[in-house]
Specification:
Layout (H helix, E strand, L loop, with lengths): L1 H14 L3 H14 L4 H14 L2 H8 L7 H10 L3 H7 L12 H17 L4 E4 L2 E4 L5 H32 L1
Antiparallel strand pairs: 1-2
Length: 168
């Protein structure tokens, strides 16, 4: 229900010539429904209408109506297959829902990402990731948080001891 309500507002904004609010509403909807191909198509059409070729290529990449200049502009703006794959902002593998042109384009992108490495594309609950096993880089954030936590605990203990000595 909310999706249709927001789409009605987008249409009303566009009828009044208010393109920027319509873009913001579509961006919000796309964030809420990242795998909705119809929303992507509408967003690409709006970017096409205002002449933003790169974004039209990005959001139209998974549709049948993306033009070659749009796709080229998208690829030029996002060098590297992994960057393009992440820029699409899909959560689930869309392969089975794509038309023949978009399906071939997406399959080629996945093959390029796998060639760039480090491992095959794996689909997780947050989108595409390399299928390599956890590495030290994946654990780096946790290790930094643990070290900071230990330092804070040590400073708290030293401060408490200092206050207790000062009080007696």
């Amino acid at each position: 229900m909310a999706r249709e309500h927001v789409l009605a507002k987008v249409e009303a904004d566009l009828r009044r010539g208010h393109v920027h609010p319509a873009m913001q509403r579509l961006a919000s909807l796309n964030a809420a429904y990242p795998d909705d191909l119809e929303l992507r198509s509408r967003r690409a059409a709006l970017y096409r209408q205002v002449g933003h070729v790169t974004e039209a290529g990005r959001w139209g990449f998974l549709t049948e109506d993306a033009s070659a200049p749009e796709i080229t502009a998208f690829e030029r703006s996002y060098p590297g297959a992994w960057r393009r794959l992440r820029a699409l902002r899909v959560i689930a593998d869309p392969t089975d829902r794509l038309g023949p042109l978009a399906g071939a384009r997406f399959a080629q992108l996945v093959r390029q990402a796998e060639r760039e490495g480090p491992a095959p594309v794996a689909w997780t609950e947050v989108g595409p990731r390399s299928g390599e096993p956890d590495s030290w880089r994946d654990m780096l954030g946790c290790l930094v948080a643990i070290v900071i936590g230990l330092v804070l605990v040590a400073l708290t203990v030293v401060g408490l001891i200092t206050v207790l000595r000062w009080a007696w």
